[in-house]
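User: quick one, fold this
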Amino acid sequence: MADLIRWDPFKDLFELKDVFDRFFSRNLPLAAKSKKDSLDSFWAPAVDVYDKKDRIIVKAELPGVDKKDVKITVDDDILTISGETKREEEVKEKDYYCSERIYGSFSRSVTLPVAVERDKVKASYKNGVLTIDLPKSKEAKGRVLEIPIE
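Assistant:
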């Protein structure tokens, strides 16, 4: 007998939203009118979001960012990681052969798939990777929504 697979109709929508968020966060700055506007004003870190039974784990790549320059907030079901990355030294534009690194403010918001216990969220930062541990709330752990057939 085949195992039943739980279908989550919103999972595909969340994945599609993340694809659009990544596309626009990476390509929108390149569409700006000037080099300064595009490269020094905005970027969004890449994130992984996954489920570990009783918690949601979010990992964000923040290379070259000091942890004191990072702010993490949880508002309802939205996790936001924001901050700023700065140049280590000032180099004149005419002296560059190539400049691909992005500096400036960043912000990345992720819609959490379940309710979390906001007062128990923990974060750690190692080797340019921010890891956020979000314990699921008791209501979210085994919540099954029964839909009546009309």
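User: anything notable?
Assistant: The chain has one domain: 11-139.
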